[in-house]
Amino acid sequence: xxxxxxxxxxxxxxxxxxxxxxxVKTNEPPDxxxxxxxxxxxxxxxxxxxxxxxxxxxxxxxxFDSAMTGWKRENDRFIxxxxxxxxxxxxxxxxxxxxxxxxxxxxxxxxxEEALQIRIYALGERIKDFDKKFGSFPINSSHRDELSKSRLxxxxxxxxFKNKNYSSCRSKLDSVEMTxxxxxxxxxxxxxxxxxxxxxxxxxxEKTLHFSKKNRTYCIVVDKxxxxxxLYKDGKVLKKxxxxxxxxxxxxxxxxGDKSTPEGLYKITDKKTNGQTTFYKAFMxxxxxxxxxxxxxxxxxxxxxxxxxxxxxxxxxxxxxxKGIDWTNGCIALKNEDLDEVFKLCPVxxxxxxxxSTRSEDELFL
Length: 366
Known about the structure:
Elements: H1 2-26, H2 31-46, H3 49-52, H4 54-75, H5 85-134, H6 141-162, H7 166-195, H8 198-215, E1 218-223, E2 228-233, E3 236-242, E4 264-272, E5 282-285, H9 290-302, E6 316-318, E7 332-333, H10 336-345, E8 351-355, H11 361-364
Parallel strand pairs: 1-8, 6-7
Antiparallel strand pairs: 1-2, 2-3, 4-5, 4-8, 5-6
Helix pairs in contact: 2-4, 2-5, 4-5, 5-6, 5-7, 6-7
């Protein structure tokens, strides 16, 4: 009897040991699944999934955190009662969500790269377009500084894109775009306002060319916006020359000292040769003419200019040009060799018509 009890006890212990071994073997800790889930989350982070596929990434992290909590809870239980099935399930779901996050991130990252490429191209074109439109337009120093900084930021943004630093690229492009939106709109409005004078300018040019054709004479048309002196003979273009103008050339000349080049119908009243003028050679113009004097008095009366202002004089087409900037006090500067050519052909009395532009806004920016 005693032997039977001992045998039963031994059998029971062996049974318990066998069950324990089987239980341990069939319910091993989910190290492999947990490590795989952790690895997949790391890969997702490397691809910036928190940014490019936030929903899937956060789901993967949530499953992983739950798996880790379940794993700890099961480890705290007696070995025979541990059950890692749910932990394994959660770890596998975390890996699955990480895979989705990686796929979505790759797709969205490609789209983001393409979008940045498009922005880089578009902003580059806007900068080129602004330089083309306003390269010779008077821009105040603060706006010029802003634009210079924007060009530098744009270059830095392009470099950041090449280095795959898309966040920095995006930030720099945002700053460039903000400046362009503000400054470009401002100067487009200024230019559009200035070009509203085209109908009047067109009439002046037409009258000048009609006179040249009818009387078979030379005439000169100065296009301030294009920076051109156009020499005509018998109403037909003979040659074009590059000119430099008064520092504040936009708009008509209102008074002495405003450094603006006048607009109107003028005539050459004198030809000064080398030694008779500060600027190599010069054509003297009949500024102020009667129209200028009338407008000057109206501006005084309306308060547009001070009552003590003077109208100014001594407007010339002179030499010493070729500096590449507007620098005169209101005169029109030509290179010396260009002035020599015009000087030989145009006598005293030649018509000189100065206008803002010989082309309308639509013609300029089609």
